[in-house]
Amino acid sequence: xxxxxxxxxxxxLGLFLYAVGIALTxxxxxxxxxxxxxxxxxxxxxxxxxxxxxxxxxxxxxIIDWKLGERIGIGTICNMFFIGIFMDLLMLNDVIxxxxxxxxxxxxxxxxxxxMGIATYFYISVxxxxxxxxxxxVAITKKTNKSVRFVRxxxxxxxxxxxxxxxxxxxxxxxxxxxGVGYSVxxxxxxxxxxxxxxxxxxxDDHVKYLKEKLSxxxxxxx
Length: 223
Hints:
By secondary structure, the chain is mostly helical. The chain has helices at residues 2-28, 34-46, 50-67, 74-92, 102-125, 132-144, 148-165, 172-191, 204-222. InterPro entries: YczE/YyaS-like.
C-alpha cells in the first residue's frame, strides 16, 4: 500500500510539474510548443480554457489509441485530465508571473523547459502507461512501418500548422521548445540515472488481472 501511494504521489508530482512547465512557457510569450499552439488555437476558437482544450484533445486521442489497439494505463488517463486541470488552476489564478523584459521572458521559457524535463522523468518512471499523444505516435508507427522520428515530426508539424491557423501563438519559442524539450528530458534522465529502455509499464488490464487473481486466491483460502 505504501509503495502504491508513493507511486501515485510521484505520478501526480510529475503531472503538476509538467503543468507548471507549460504555464511558464505560455507566460514567456515567445511562442508555444506545437501541441500548445494547437491547444491555444482551439481555446480561442471555442472559448474554452487551454486546460480544457488539453483535456478534450487528450480524450479524442485516447479513443483513437484504443481503436488502434494501444494499451492504456492509469498514468495515461491521469495525464489526459490532470495536466489540463493543473494548467487551469495555475493560469486562471495567475500563479505564474508574467515578465515584460525579453531577458526575463527567455529565462522563464528555459526554466519551463527544464521543469518539463524533470516532470517527464517523474511521470514516465512510475511505469503506469504513456500519455495519449505518445500512444498515438506508437500506434501510427506500428500501422505505417514508418520511423518514429518521421511519425513524431509529422504529428508535431501537423498540429503546429492547424493550431497556427486556429490562432495559436507560434514564434522563436516554438523552435526552442521543439529542440529544447528533448534535450531537457534527456538531461533529466541522466541526472536521475534513469534508463527508459528498461522500464516495463503496467496497464489497466494488468491491474484488473492482478485483482482477479487476488480475489480468486481469497476465495480459495475461504473454501
